[in-house]
Write a structure and sequence with these properties.
single chain; 144 residues; mainly beta; SH3 type barrels; seven-stranded antiparallel β-sheet; three-stranded antiparallel β-sheet; 8% helix
Length: 144
Amino acid sequence: MVGICQQGLFSVAGKDYMRRVKVVNITYGVRDFVWVDFPENAQKPEFIGIHPAVVISIKNNNRIPYLVLPATSKAQDTTDPYVWKLIKRLRVDMVDTWVICSHIYAVAHTRIQKRASPLKVDQHDFDQIGQRCCIRLPFEYSEK
């Protein structure tokens, strides 16, 4: 009989053993352009599958989720206050990228695809994204 104990211990037939846990120290920063694996069972209009996203908030701790905004190559309505077209084309296929600022997701670091060093969104783009994220919030967005 196998039982799980706290603090990385497990027991088999009454004998305790230490569990070796591999710690992955991959961290991403604010403004990083990453690829996120969104759940396949989400309802529309949620994002499904692997999509690019912009990291908007982090903690230096892999147990706390990243806050990201999904991005799409599908053209969006330019009058919509909740979307922003990135000035710099960050995707390999060089298509226009739109960030959907009304869809804030909290994702675990395990759902972010491990790729080469992530690209950074320009500061001007990030400031525009921040303003659009905060439209409905009860405080104003302020640049540093």
